[in-house]
Automatic annotation (TrEMBL):
The lineage of its organism: Bacteria, Pseudomonadati, Pseudomonadota, Gammaproteobacteria, Oceanospirillales. Catalyzes the Claisen rearrangement of chorismate to prephenate and the decarboxylation/dehydration of prephenate to phenylpyruvate. The keyword Amino-acid biosynthesis applies. GO terms for biological process: chorismate metabolic process; L-phenylalanine biosynthetic process. Its main location: cytoplasm. This is Bifunctional chorismate mutase/prephenate dehydratase. It comes from Oleispira antarctica RB-8.
């Protein structure tokens, strides 16, 4: 017996679509209302700025606090990180109304560093690819870009020494960090694919770090292929497109950009392969509530030197998250220590520990305090 109280599928879907249209209209109105507030914020900042004083529109600590609250109050069904990504883009568009930002990154277009820049700042920024990590630092120092994005460490291959070394002679601050899951793909152009089977490329291009991160896969699947390190994975994809018999290891974005096919996806040896990137700029960052601080310290090469550098952090209850050692240019067997710790330099216990450490150093520089990566 048919229940006549049931409506048709078309009628039910029609009601739901009308509801969605109504919700969409409300969302659009609220987003534009938020954008108007952002414009008013810019007006207030400009009105109260002192003559000759540059107005600071982008506040990393403020954005981190907003995104954390978004994730904390999320009740689903969308995942908290997904909702935060939506808000990141809304914030990016709103900030562009206050001040369109230029972001220097390790290029060319299609690199993982560009992906990290867009993940951190959203898509309403102008990304400027640079040829090297040193060029990113120079572009920000010269005022050609508001901020820069550089890789600093990978969970598989460790620290990127060029980035650490660039801080030695730079006055830029670390303003933020972003972690990006790295998926590497084996890329070929259409001519090397024969009815779904992979032909035999003679060489594979990629960045040295990426070749290292896929070493086991290459050993097992392409043991005789020539492995050639280039400046970036995007450059690898470009060469694979232009040269005969060439493959590349690069990202999906690079594959799309250079019209290559993904012959094998996700070839990284470690499934949780992640790279950490730093945001560098001229401004300092205030306390966000969940911060890191990075230091550069040097001491004389004598017994117990490292112990005396680290003891104040233990005494003040400050947790260290990373210590890296680099040779100092000031003399043979002298070293510089890069230290990451939990907390902000303006917090009492961190400030006290830093003051005690400074007494033990021949060189001391706070590279910046910044919010921990939210997304």
């Amino acid at each position: 017996m048919t229940n006549n109280s049931f409506t048709t599928e078309a009628e039910e879907l029609g009601k739901l679509r009308d509801e969605i249209d109504s919700v969409d209209q409300q969302i659009q109105q609220l987003v534009n209302q938020r954008a108007q507030c952002a414009q008013k914020v810019a007006d207030v900042k400009e009105h109260f700025s002192k003559p000759g004083e540059s107005v600071v529109f982008y506040r990393p600590e403020r954005e981190a606090q907003v995104l954390r609250r978004v994730m904390e109050r999320n009740q689903g069904p969308l995942p908290a990180e997904g909702v935060a990504r939506l808000f990141r883009e809304i914030m990016s568009q709103c900030l562009a109304l206050e001040e369109p930002m230029k972001i220097a990154y390790l290029g060319p277009e299609g690199t993982f560093t560009q992906q990290a820049a867009l993940k951190h700042f959203g898509h309403a920024v102008e990304c400027q690819g640079q040829g090297s990590i040193e060029d990113v630092f120079r572009e920000v120092e010269a005022g050609g870009a508001n901020f820069g994005v550089v890789p600093v460490e990978n969970s598989t291959e460790g620290v990127i020494t060029h980035t650490l070394d660039s801080f030695v002679g730079s006055n830029l601050n670390i303003c933020g960090e972003v972690a990006l899951r790295i998926h590497h793909h084996f890329l070929l152009k259409e001519a090397l694919l024969k009815k779904g089977a992979v032909a035999n490329p003679t060489k594979v291009y990629s960045h040295a770090q990426s070749l290292a991160q896929c070493r086991q896969w290459l050993d097992a699947n392409w043991p005789g292929i020539e492995r050639i390190a280039v400046s970036s994975n995007a450059e690898a994809a470009r060469r694979a497109q232009e040269e005969e018999g060439a493959a590349a290891i690069a990202s999906e974005a690079a594959a799309e950009l250079y019209n290559l096919n993904i012959a094998t996806a996700n070839i990284e040896d470690m499934p949780d392969n992640t790279t950490r990137f730093l945001i560098i700029g001229k401004q300092t960052t205030e306390i966000s509530g969940d911060d890191k601080t990075s230091l550069l310290v040097a001491s004389k090469n004598k017994p117990g030197a490292l112990y005396h550098l680290l003891a104040p952090f233990h005494e003040e209850g400050v947790s260290l998250t990373r210590i890296e050692t680099r040779p100092s240019k000031s003399g043979t067997w002298n070293y510089i220590f890069f230290i990451d710790l939990e907390g902000h330099q303006n917090e009492e216990k961190v400030a006290k520990a830093m003051a005690l450490v400074q007494q033990q150093c021949t060189d001391f520089k706070c590279l910046g305090s910044y919010p921990k990566a939210v997304l």
